[in-house]
Amino acid sequence: MVDRLKARWWFAPLAIFLATRVVTTILFLVAAWLQGTNYWTPAHPDYFSFLNIWDVEWYGRIFDGGYPSVLPVDASGFVQQNPWAFFPLFPYLVKLTFLPWAIGAPLLATVFALLFALVVHRLFVRVLGVGSKANWALTFVLTCAASPVMQTGYAESLSLLGMSLALLGFVSKRYWLVYASLAVVAFSRPGVLAFAAFFGIVFLVRLFQKNAAERAHLVLLTIWSTALGFAWPLIAGLVTGRSDAYYATEMAWRYGYTGSTHFTPFSGFVVAFQNFFGGPIGVLIYVILAANLVYLFFAKEVIALGEVRWFAAGYLLYLFAVFYPQSSTWRLLLPLFVLAGALSLKAKGLWRWAILGVFVLTQVVWIWTCWMYAAPDFTPP
After folding, report:
1. What is the spatial distance between Cα 347 and Cα 328, in angstroms, rounded to a whole number?
2. Peptide linkage before 381 cis (omega within 30 of 0)
């Protein structure tokens, strides 16, 4: 009986998922016991209350009352923080559970995290082959610093599920799955434009290699993911009567870091590094970081991932274009999960266990510094 279970394709990813969730749940329970009185809960909150802090509150507002038709503004006319920064699919799916938000959101997020683990393991099997490499790649994904967020009331696990389904559909040439999964990504979290970059990169690489295979699909997928990338801003504009409703709302969050309500593509990292490290030194560190990331894609272990590595490149390009790095960076790096495959190829023997131990420690640090709250706290998860 046990041997038959072990032979099932889902046994290894399910076992890895359950083992890693035991660890993250224990870490959350300990952190909840240590948590003092905060903006959302009294001291020592229960498990579900503790998983409903930070931006979970915004998703909860959408769950309860949807989106405002009039944007809130201050005395100067600047748009204030409001629910339009958060996408609708996750909170509306929680409604279908008929559970209260505080319980339904973490539970459904955890279910999506399980489905993501199963799908991304299939992706790693296709890319790396059956065996320990795929298992270790999944283990690294589920133990990295911000991975505990996948069982909170955030939309990360749903978005990651959509991304992994899209990539699995792409490598298996099931394009109907890619088109459908991109819609899930587009209405769960920002990031579907990274797929437009991914398909564009693959198209150019195949063109350079004189590989004409599937070129039409690449063009159509690029158009589809680009259109989806602007769908939510368009909806926000139509409902509120302001064409810049979504972008102005997003800048309301960045204003606390930059003091600016204007968005300039590719400026976020430059400004952040200048703020963190000071003028020319910040720019130099930024250039060094960007150069090392480019160099990363020439590593043989990354090349061994095949075309899915270009999704990581496309997602990094997307982040550099739109994001202002701060403590949420660790969470926003989760879509780079495909690179865990390269790490599983690079690490051997005891090094894998050493990396696993370090990753679990990063979870402790992330929960302690980003999830636990002590006012004034400027390190959101």
Report:
1. 27
2. no
Give the C-alpha separation, 102 to 51, whole Å. Answer: 8
Total residues belonging to the chain: 381
Q: What is the dihedral of CA 64, 69, 71, 77, to 10 degrees?
A: -150
How far apart (Å, rounded) are the C-alpha atoms in residues 291 and 187? Answer: 32
DSSP H helical ranges for the chain: 2-7, 11-34, 47-50, 56-65, 89-95, 101-128, 132-143, 156-171, 175-186, 193-208, 215-229, 231-240, 245-258, 268-277, 279-296, 300-303, 309-322, 329-332, 339-346, 350-366
| Residue partners of 377: CB distance under 8 A and separation at least 6 | none
Amino acid at 266: F
Nearest to 293 by CA among 265, 250, 325: 325
Write the CB contacts of 149 (distance below 8 Å, at least 6 apart in sequence). Answer: 156, 331, 334, 371, 381
Based on its alpha-carbon atoms, the radius of gyration of the chain, rounded to whole angstroms, reads 21
Render each residue's pLDDT in the chain as its tens digit; 381 residues: 666 777 788 899 999 999 999 999 999 999 999 999 999 999 999 999 999 999 999 999 999 999 999 999 998 889 999 999 999 999 999 999 999 999 999 999 999 999 999 999 999 999 998 789 999 999 999 999 999 999 999 999 999 999 999 999 999 999 999 999 999 999 999 999 999 999 999 999 888 776 666 788 899 999 999 999 999 999 999 999 999 999 999 999 887 777 777 788 888 888 888 888 888 888 899 999 999 999 999 999 999 999 999 999 999 999 999 999 989 999 999 999 999 999 999 999 999 999 999 999 999 999 999 999 988 888 899
Q: Look at residues 16, 40, 45 and name the one whose alpha carbon lies nearest to residue 29.
A: 45
Contact 105, 94 (CB under 8 A): yes
